[in-house]
Amino acid sequence: MDRVLFSIGPITIYWYSVTMLLAVLTGIYLSLKESKKHNMYDYISDLIVYVVVFGIIGARTYYVIFNFDNYQSNLLDIFKIWEGGIAIYGAIIGGLLTIIYMSKKRKESIIETTDIIVPGLILAQAIGRWGNFFNQEAHGLEVSLEFLKKLKLPEFIIEGMYINGSYYHPTFLYESIWCIIGFIVLIIIRKLIKRRKGILTYSYFIWYGIGRLFIEGLRTDSLYLGSFRISQIVSLLLIVIGIILIIVNIIKGKKNERKI
């Protein structure tokens, strides 16, 4: 159920759309701001448009592929993205493939590009999760009213988690908070570690992967591959890849220091 923000004649503006727009603009702003410090503003400003477009396409494609039974009787519904139905891992895959292609085409560093983008990305994810709240989707398992009150949640969140006669885990909130903390962690890492490219990107893989791995286990709308939740599989892969690449990065860094 997509809540209406306001209507003017035939034009209707939904909370979901506004939330997603705010998330995208936040990610763009932070990425462009950081790109100036690396003398990559022109490149990032060109790249970001393609990343957003193909990120959205990837997010929708990923979701539709694993929910195709819901669309095969009416294929036009595939394009009704305003009704919800996007997957963040699809957006990440679509955006990453775009970065790889564009970086090679423009002869820019792929990993330096992702280091610039990931802090804005994770904060955008934190904001975007509120779109799920307004749509009353991507929630967790059923809980009691007492459980939600013990979490000291604002009343409007508790009311929003009352769906079809039952209360549910506000998993959107859990992930939003996790991503906000992750944003702070990445900013601290960026200030402390300035020379080693990739640490910020790999830290994002690990941080987001850990949070999503556990939060996904509470959700009722997971996409499945057989009996396994796809997002948990991808999360585990991100964590493992992130850890391995950080270790490799540190080892290479120490070897370079010895040579100096």
Note down, in words, how this protein is organized:
The structure is a single chain. The chain has 260 residues and is mainly α. 68% of the residues lie in helices and 8% in strands. The protein contains nine helices and seven strands, in the order ββααααβααββααββα. The strands form three sheets. It has a three-stranded antiparallel β-sheet. Strands 1-2 form a two-stranded antiparallel ribbon. Helix 4 (110-135) runs parallel beside helix 8 (199-216) and helix 7 runs antiparallel to helix 8. The longest helix has 30 residues, at 230-259. It is globular, with a radius of gyration of 20 Å. The protein starts with a strand and ends with a helix. The mean pLDDT is 91.
